[in-house]
Amino acid sequence: MNNLLVTGGCGFIGANFIRYLLEEAPGFTGRVINVDKLTYAANPLSLADIEKRFPGRYVLVRADIVDRPAMARALDAHGVDAIGHFAAESHVDRSIVRPDDFIQTNVVGTHVLLELFRERRDRIARFHHVSTDEVFGSLGPTGYFTEDTPYRPNSPYSASKAASDHLARAWHETYGLPITISNCSNNYGPYQFPEKLISLMILNALEGKPLPVYGDGKNVRDWLYVRDHCTAIWRVLTRGAPGRTYNVGGRSERPNLDVVGLVCDLVDELAGPRPGGKPRRELIAFVKDRPGHDRRYAIDCSRIERELGWRPEESFETGLRKTVRWYMEHREWVDQVRTGEYQRWIKAHYG
Ligand code: NAD
Ligand code: DAU
Description:
Rossmann fold
């Protein structure tokens, strides 16, 4: 793997993955070509130090994965020999309000990349498609999603990701292309745009703002620290069997209310009490439920553990503590996001 193209590398998981690649990934000495459209969710400043610290090994190309000529140019100009496909519209609430971009990027964009890969099959050795456990739908109080669980997506987001998974699978079955897929549970950690549950709750708790919990707060998610997701993707990219799907999870199921309560306790402990000494749990506010809100996700990740020897390193408690600390210690990044400075950077550099 000399020239790895990462799509969506200015987003939360993509940026963490590029850091992992250049700083830690065992045996990776190649270059990273980060292709990103730079949507609202992208923050190139998350990787501001990387270009300087790894001269000649990192390049950012602003392009839309739906734009076939632009993507062909990126693949050819940089001699790409492997692809890690992270780019997506990723936020469920936004998909409910305006599904259009989800269909374009997640479905049409994935199709474009698969076709360009097919045309270059002699030069590109691997395509890894990053996906989600949401494609499996919702579980009752017991049971787990396995790789054989039938797809039953419930939101426009998860339906668009399910469609992209089916395309990736079909391009392997029909054209024999070396494609792998991973379906991962909820990620949290550094550089997450503060619209997702944990990042939003940490910042609101620090700022003494209300903590909106949808419905009764008893919906369950399985939480995985983002670096553990990155190590899983690296394992699959380098050792996964072509055509195979891998579930990735943290074995850390928690009801949302417990997650928010734990965030409150950690912020109380690490940032000190609010004025008047009131606990941050008092900021919790139950709000209208999300339409079609999946009740429970839980992942059986025994395949990737057994076949590729992957294990998460962080427990939910250690990962959450690190995450709260990270947001407290990176006020500059938080302010760039809160004030929209990152968008001004994009405008200044790309118009
Ligand atoms: P994100 O929203 O933080 O980042 C998405 C990135 O993709 C952004 O940088 C954005 O600019 C870019 N992008 C969007 N549309 C694009 C387009 N048309 N062309 C090029 N770039 C485009 O998302 P994330 O949370 O980092 O998720 C990354 C991937 O992981 C997604 O495929 C998502 O479905 C999947 N995933 C996410 C989670 C999670 O908990 N966040 C869990 C499992 C799987
Ligand atoms: O499971 C993997 C998926 O996890 C990824 O594929 C998605 O890209 C990612 O966004 C995430 O989806 P969720 O919908 O599970 O994540 P979100 O952070 O939006 O919500 C987590 C839970 O918290 C969910 O049950 C809704 C609830 N929630 C969310 C927000 C933003 C609240 O109660 N209040 C909130 O303000």
